[in-house]
Amino acid sequence: MDSKGSVELQPGEGAPGCPQEGLPCPPDSSELVRECLNQFQLTERQLRQIQARILGSMELALRGEASPVPAVRMLPAYVGSIPHGTEQGDFLVLELGATGASLRVLWVTLTGMEGCQMEPRSQEFLIPQELMLGPGQQLFDFAARCLSEFLDAFPVGNRRLQLGFSFSFPCHQTGLDRSILISWTKGFRCSGVEGQDVVQLLRDAIKRQGAYSVDVVAVVNDTVGTMMGCGPGSAPCEVGLVVDTGTNACYMEEARHVAVLDEDRGRVCVSIEWGSFGDDGVLGPVLTTFDRILDQESLNPGAQRFEKMIGGLYLGELVRQVLAHLAQHGVLFGGRTSPALLSQGGVLLEHVAEMEDPSTGTARVRAILQGLGLSPGAEDAELVQRVCAAVCTRAARLCAAALAAVLTRLQHGREQQTLQIAVATGGQVFERHPRFLSVLRETVKLLAPECDVSFTPSVDGGGRGVAMVTAVAARVAAHRRMLEETLALFRLNHEQLAQVQAQMREAMAQGLRGEASSLRMLPTYVRATPDGSERGDFLALDLGGTNFRVLLVRVAASGVQITSEIYSIPEHVAQGPGEQLFDLIVDCILNFQQKQGLSGQSLPLGFTFSFPCRQVGLDQGILLNWTKGFSASDCEGQDVVGLLRQAIVRKQAVKLNVVAIVNDTVGTMMSCGYEDPRCEVGLIVGTGTNACYMEELQNVAGVAGDVGLMCINMEWGAFGDDGSLGTLTTCFDELVDQASINPGKQRFEKMISGMYLGEIVRHILLHLTSLGVLFRGQKTQRLQTRDIFKTKFLSEIESDSLALRQVRAILEDLGLPLTSDDALMVLEVCQAVSQRAAQLCGAGVAAVVEKIRENRGLDKLTVSVGVDGTLYKLHPHFSGLVAATVRELAPRCVVTFLQSEDGSGKGAALVTAVACRLAQQAPV
Ligand code: BG6
Ligand code: GLC
Ligand code: GLC
Question: Is the pLDDT of residue 261 over 60?
C-alpha cells in the first residue's frame, strides 16, 4: 500500500464530477445530483490508503522526526494511568473548546465505587462571538467569571477546590498542569494566547477575579477526558475518540516510543491531533470543491483539512454548500435559495443530523427546510436526506480510517494477534447522530478486522473523565508516596553500609579469636590455593546448592576435564531422616560410577558440603547446623564424612576414599584459583550466601602453628544472628524469618540469597496490596502462597525493565490483575530488594578484602574473588552493584570478580589432589 504519495483516486470511483472548479454543471439534473453525491464517496482502497498514511504520520511524529513534517502531532498528555474506578472526592471541571461557542463548568463528585455514580451538577455558558476572536485575556476573564457564577450556588466557603481544565485545542503539554497552545482551531482566534501556557492564563484570571480559591491541578484535551471517563466494560478502554465541533483521538502509547519523553517505562496517553492530517495536501484528490470553498471561507484556511471533513462545525456547512449549489442549478427548491442557505453557519449540525435520520419523515424534513426560509417541493425532502447522508457517511468513514490506524498501531505496539479494546466516544456528533456510530463501526470492522472493538459513550460528556484525571493524579501521587515509604526501608546509604562493613570486621576478629560472634570463622585446613602441579582422577560430590552433583574430575597437564551428573534431592529427603539422605547420596554415587564405567574403583573423593562444619582436619567435618531448607535428622553434631562412610557400609558398596570435605565457597575459590593465583576469596550468592578467604594462620585461634595461611569459611550467612543487624531488618525480613524452618538464624543470608529474596518481594507486594497501592487492593490466593514468587523472577523482571513485558507475563501467570502502573511498581520493589541484597553482600566483601590488605600491611591490595551461585550469575545488576559497593567501601583494594564456570566440584577435586600429593610426600 502506498504510504508516501498522495491518496489516489481510482478512475470511475468517486470521480470528481460536478462541480469542477470554474466549470458549469451539466444540465441534466439527475446526472448533476449523481455526480455531486459521488464526490463524497470513498472507496475501500482510498480508505485503506488514508489509514496507512495516518499510521505512517503517527509513527513519524512519535519518533520526533521533523522532516517531512508529520501530518498529525502526537502530543503526550502526561496521563499515564487509566482510572481504577476507586477515585474519590469533589472536583471542579471547566471545559473550553469542545462544543462550539459554549463553556461548561461541572461539579463532579467521585464516589470511589463503580456503578454508584453521583450526577454531576453543571452549567453551560454561551461565549459571545466577539470573545472568541478578541484578546485572550478577555476570554479567560470570562471563564473565571463563569466559574464564580457557578460556584455561587454552592456552599463552598473558604474551601480550596481542585479543578481540572479541559482545553480542546492542540497544545504542547510539559506537565500535568502546564500546556502551551500551539494554534487555535474550530472558530476560535483570540490574540495573545498561542505560545502561552493556558493553565497560567486561567490561574491569572481566577486570581484577578479573586472570588474563590481554586487550584488548577490538571489540564487535558477533551479526548483524554473522554477516554478517562469511559464507563466500566470488559475490555480496557485505552482510546478516546471525539467528534464534536472538531475531531481528534487519544490513546495509551508505550512511553518508550514517544521520543519527546525521557521516560522509557510504562504508558502515556497521546493526543493524536489528527484534525491536521491532510494539511500537507495529501488529501487533495479526495477533496470536493465544497471542501475547498469551506476551507477558504474558514478562519484558518489550509489548516485542519481532515477535521473540516468530519467535525460537527463543518458538516452543516458542507450540506449547506451542496444544497445551495443544487438550488442555484435549479435542481432543488424550484431553483430558489434563502438568506440562511446562502450565509455561512446557516445550516447547523442538528439540522443535518435530524434530516439525515432515515426515520425522520419527509414532513419533518420539509419543516426544517422551511425553518431555513426555503420552500421545499414534494421530492426535495428525499434529495436533501440523500445529501445529508452522503456528507455524514463520508465523515464517519474517514473517522473510521483514522481510528483503524490507531488500532493497528496499538496492536503492533503490543505485539498482539488480536486486540480487544474499548473506545470511549464523545461529542455532539455521536450524541445527535446515531447512524454516525454504526457507519463508523462497520468501516472499522472492514479496515481493522483483527481488532475486537467495543464503543462506549463517555460519561457526562467527558467531564467525569477530567475529574478522574485530576483524581488519578492525586491517587498516583499518594500511591507513589506509600511505595516510596515502604521501599525506603530497603535503601541503604553510605553510612549504613560502612557500618555493616565495620560490624562485619569486628565479628570476624571475634570469631577468629574464638570469642562469641555471629561469624564462626571456621578453619578449613586448606592452606594454599592450587599451584598448577596437581594431577590425577578424582570423584567429587557437590551437595547444598540448587543441584546435587556427582563428578569425575580429571586433572592433567593439559587442563581439567569434568564429567558430571545432576541428581535431585527431594524436599522430603532433605528434611527427613539423616540415614535416608546419606543412603540416597551413596545410591547416586553408585549410579554415577556405573554410568562412567568406574564401578569397583576407589578414586580419591572430595566432598563439597555446603553447610557449616567444624573441621579438625581436611577429611573430618562436624555439621554444626543445617541451613537453606535442609533439616535431615540426626546429622547435626556428627562428622559428615563418618555419616557418608556409614551409608557406604549400609549399602555394602565398595569402599570410598573420602579425602577432603570442602565448603562450596572454598571449592569455588580453589576452582578459580587454578586459573588465577590472585584468587584468595570465595563467594557464593545462590540458594544461600557465604564467603571464605585466606587468613594468616597466626590470627586463627585453635589451630596449631602460626606461619602461613589458612582458608577460613566465614559462614557469613549467620552474620547478625546476635541481633547486630537489628536496625536494618524490616518487618518483611521478620515475616520471612518467622516462616522459615530456622527462625532467628542466618539473618544476613535471609536478606541476600536466592532462597529468600522472592519471599521478601512477595511480602512487600502483599503489604502494598493491602494499602490498595497494588492490584487494586485485591489479594489473590496465589500471592498469599509461600514461595510462589521465585527469586529467578527478580532476575527476569529486572532484565526487561524496558517493556515490562516480563513483569506482566509473570504476574499474569500468578493470576494477578495487573495494570501498567502495577507492573512498574513491582519492578521497583524487585529492584529495591535486590539492590539491598547486592549492597549488603558488597559490604561483606569489602570487610574481607580490607582485612586481607591490613593483615599484609599493604597500601593497596590487588585480589581476585571467585564467585558462584545462581543469583549472582543470573541477575542482570547484582554483580555490578556488588562491585560498585566494594569500590566505594574498600577504595584501597583492587578487586576482580571471577565467575566460576565449573562449579565447586572442581575445587573440591583440587583440594583432594593437593592432599593426596602431600600424603605421598609425607615421610612413612
Ligand atoms: C554451584 C556450586 O555452581 O553453585 C555449588 O557447584 C554451590 O557448590 C552453588 O553450592 C551455589 O549456587 P546455587 O544457586 O546453586 O545455590
Ligand atoms: C480539534 C482540537 C483538538 C480537539 C478536537 C475535538 O481538533 O485541535 O484538540 O481534541 O478538536 O474537540
Ligand atoms: C549456607 C551454608 C554455607 C554455604 C552457603 C552457600 O550459608 O551454611 O555453608 O557456603 O549457604 O551455599
Answer: yes
Residue 170 is placed in which grid cell?
492542540
Question: What's the total number of domains in the chain?
Answer: 3
Active site (annotated) includes residue 554: no
In angstroms, the CA 666 to CA 671 distance is: 8
pLDDT in tens, 543-586: 998 899 999 999 998 889 999 999 999 999 999 999 999 999 99
Question: Best mutation site among 96, 181, 247 for ligand 2, i.e. most ligand atoms within 8 A of its Cβ?
Answer: 247
Q: Which three cell numbers stand for residue 780?
A: 489473590
Q: What are phi and psi of 899, to 5 degrees?
A: -80, 130
- Same-domain status, 315 and 351: yes
| DSSP-assigned beta bridge partners for residue 270 | 76, 251
In a domain, 303, yes or no: yes
Residues 98 and 202 grouped into a single domain: yes
Pair (476, 533) in one structural domain: no
Q: State how far the alpha carbon of 126 is from the alpha carbons of 96, 100, 160, 566, 737, in Å.
A: 11, 9, 27, 80, 67
Helix locations, 305-433, DSSP H: 307-310, 312-328, 339-342, 349-356, 362-371, 380-413, 428-432
| 581 inside domain | yes
| Nearest protein CA to atom 2 of ligand 1, as residue | 903
Which residue, of 425, 448, 480, is where some domain finishes? 480
- Model pTM score: 0.70
Indicate the residue among 480, 515, 549 that finishes a domain. 480
**Whose Cα sits closest to atom 8 in ligand 3?**
611
Q: Is 204 assigned a catalytic role?
A: no
Task: Please indicate, yes or no, if residue 124 is contained in any of the structural domains.
Answer: yes
Same-domain status, 91 and 221: yes
Residue 387 domain boundaries: 29-69+278-457
Q: How many angstroms separate the alpha carbon of residue 610 from the centre of ligand 3?
A: 5
408 Cα: distance to centroid of ligand 2 (angstroms)? 22
Helix (H, G, I), strand (E, B) or coil at 620: strand
| Interval 833-842: pLDDT, tens | 999 999 999 9
CA of 75 to the centre of ligand 2 (A): 12
CA of 607 to the centre of ligand 3 (A): 14
The 3-class secondary structure across 112-128, one letter per residue, is CCCCCCCCCEEEEEECC
Do 465 and 426 lie in one domain? The reply is: no
Pocket of ligand 3 (CB under 6 A): 544-545, 610-612, 627-628, 663-665, 684, 686-690, 715, 717, 749
Residues 448 and 466 in one domain: no
Residues 126 and 142 in one domain: yes
Q: How many CB atoms lie within 10 A of CB 603?
A: 19
Whether 550 and 419 map to the same domain: the answer is no
Q: Candidates 546, 607, 609, 611: which one to mutate for ligand 3, based on the most atoms within 8 Å of Cβ?
A: 611
Which among 194-208, 454-468, 794-808 has the top mean pLDDT? Answer: 194-208
Mean pLDDT computed over every residue of the chain: 91
3-state secondary structure at position 861 = strand
The angle subtended at Cα 798 by Cα 796 and Cα 801, nearest 5°, is 115
One-letter identity of residue 371: G
What's the CATH code of the domain at 399?
A: 3.40.367.20
Ligand 1 atom, smallest distance to 871 CA = 14
576: CATH: 3.30.420.40
CA-closest residue to ligand 3 atom 4: 610
Å from CA of 492 to ligand 3 middle: 24
If you take atom 4 of ligand 2, which residue's CA is the nearest one? 168
Q: Whose CA is nearest to atom 8 of ligand 2?
A: 169
Q: Which residues line ligand 2 (CB under 6 A)?
A: 98, 168-170, 185-186, 221-223, 242, 244-248, 273, 275, 307
- Is a pLDDT exceeding 70 seen at residue 116? no
From the alpha carbon of 665, which atom of ligand 3 is closest? 10
In a domain, 777, yes or no: no
- Peptide linkage before 19 cis (omega within 30 of 0): yes
Atom 3 in ligand 2: which residue has the minimum CA distance?
169
Atom of ligand 2 nearest to the CA of 185: 8
Q: Per-residue pLDDT tens for 271-287?
A: 999 999 999 999 999 99
Report the share of the chain in percent with pLDDT over 70: 94
pLDDT digits (tens, 9 = 90+) for 705-739: 889 999 999 999 999 999 999 999 999 999 999 99
